[in-house]
């Protein structure tokens, strides 16, 4: 993607969806952290079904800790890797209670020190909960960044670094949401819906196809 196209690319995504949001359901920073921790190799829809039951019983780190690993495991067994995720979630809650007064820390280092919390999860929490211009690179962001030529890279970290350099500052806070939703609903892994894509004229993969027949942006 040419440098001069990046501004138009994001302006179009922003016009279609001015206030993009995560599709994970939560009512607090802690619930957001827990939901993102549970979302690895699972769909947001599947996670939301599990956390609806889980958060009703344990909306705070202390209450989650009180449930214990066995009960948490039962409540989230419908999502992938549930046993390991239950252990990590309860261990994370213990640290939150013992070291952070039951609050989710705002620093990357403190977040990444929590069991089951890697760079992507930390980036989501920092961005969604605290409004920091971080770039969480999941499979959708990685695919869209490479396919469009926006920020090609061989690893999520490489893509993240390039996105932080290329995305205009005015779009940085919401950029990862737009890219996730674009990859989830239009720029899919198989059979991308280029014919419905409003940004394909700036995309390395789709611009040769000409003007889109339907000016569709991201949904969500």
Overview of this protein structure:
There is one protein chain. The longest helix is centred in the middle third of the chain and has 19 residues, at 82-100. The protein contains ten helices and no strands. It has helices at 3-16, 29-38, 44-57, 61-75, 82-100, 108-112, 119-129, 139-148, 156-166, 172-185. Mean pLDDT is 92; it is low at 213-220. It is an all-alpha fold. The protein folds into two domains: 3-20 and 135-209, Helix-hairpin-Helix base-excision DNA repair enzymes (C-terminal) (Endonuclease Iii, domain 2); 29-129, Hypothetical protein, domain 2 (Endonuclease III, domain 1, Orthogonal Bundle), CATH 1.10.340. It is 56% helix and 0% strand. It starts with a helix and ends in a 35-residue tail after the last helix.
Q: Tell me, what's the shape?
A: elongated
Order of helices and strands: HHHHHHHHHH
Indicate the mean pLDDT.
92
The main pleated sheet reads as: none
Q: State Rg.
A: 18 Å
Number of domains: 2
Number of strands: 0
Q: State the end-to-end distance.
A: 25 Å
Sequence stretches where pLDDT stays below 50 over 5 or more residues: 213-220
Quick one: CATH superfamily of the largest domain?
Hypothetical protein, domain 2
User: What is the third-level CATH name, the topology of the largest domain?
Assistant: Endonuclease III, domain 1
